[in-house]
Design goal:
- Helices cover about 45% and strands about 10% of the residues.
- With about 220 residues, the chain is α+β, with helices and mostly antiparallel strands.
- The protein has a 4-stranded mixed β-sheet.
- The chain has 7 helices and 4 strands, in the order βαβαββααααα.
- Helix 4 runs parallel beside helix 6.
- A hairpin with a 2-residue loop joins strand 3 and strand 4.
- It is globular.
- The chain has 2 domains: about 70 residues, Glutaredoxin; about 110 residues, Glutathione S-transferase Yfyf (Class Pi), Chain A, domain 2 (Up-down Bundle), CATH 1.20.1050.10.
Length: about 220
């Protein structure tokens, strides 16, 4: 697979983050070498002045694309790394459709499925009150929307595997991890997850949360 972005990159990473996992999955499937810098976000390592100079929002992942040049936001990083490959189509409509699903992932899935999973796995769920119930309902509806879209499709954008699939896979495939979400009534989603795991150079992840994540 050819790509336009060349040279060694450095990924500022927290292994338990599904947003970071997206980037590592793409890099594995591009068979691209990279350097990893572990950032223990639950010990404040993403809030230091040094890190905030790389990403003022204080979040991972951050990609150092060249010395002193940084790119934040996981889906922006996916677009950058996949530039010039079949995973990020150049034709206007499929490219816009990929963007559609990248936006859907960050607005509908990551703040609901991702948040509820994190709260429950780290024992923070009881402190959320009614917000937990609302987020769970919103996340399950987002997963149902995904299932409706995939009912007669191989991948999210037509028949072609793309960074849209990588982005949605990251949180969807771990949705059931102690979170209260269920994929049982979503056969199209379950078939889609299996197809992604059959892609060349698929990489498992994310890792479990580190001990520092637990209050």
């Amino acid at each position: 697979m050819q790509h336009y972005t060349t040279g060694m990159v450095k990924l500022y990473d927290y292994a338990g983050s599904a947003n970071c996992y997206k980037i590592k999955l793409l890099l594995a499937q591009l068979q691209r070498s990279y350097e990893t810098v572990d950032v223990e976000i639950f010990r404040g390592e993403s809030r230091t002045l040094e890190f905030l100079a790389k990403n003022p929002a204080g979040r991972v992942p951050v990609l150092e694309v060249s010395p002193g040049e940084y790119l934040a936001e996981s889906n922006a990083i996916l677009c950058y790394l996949a530039s010039g490959t079949a995973l990020w189509p150049e034709a206007p409509l499929p490219r816009a459709q990929v963007l559609q699903w990248l936006f859907f992932e960050q607005y509908e899935v990551e703040p609901t499925v991702g948040s509820v999973r994190f709260w429950k796995l780290t024992g923070r769920d009881k402190a959320q009150g009614s917000l937990l119930e609302r987020k769970t309902a919103q996340g399950q509806e987002a997963l149902r929307s995904l299932d409706r879209h995939l009912e007669h499709r191989t991948f999210l954008v037509g028949e072609a595997y793309s960074i849209a699939d990588i982005a949605l896979y990251a949180y969807t495939h771990v949705a059931e991890d102690g979170s209260g979400f269920t994929l049982d009534p979503l056969p199209a989603v379950r078939r889609w997850l299996k197809r992604i795991e059959e892609q060349p150079h698929w990489l498992p992840g994310p890792a479990p949360y580190s001990a520092a994540a637990y209050p």
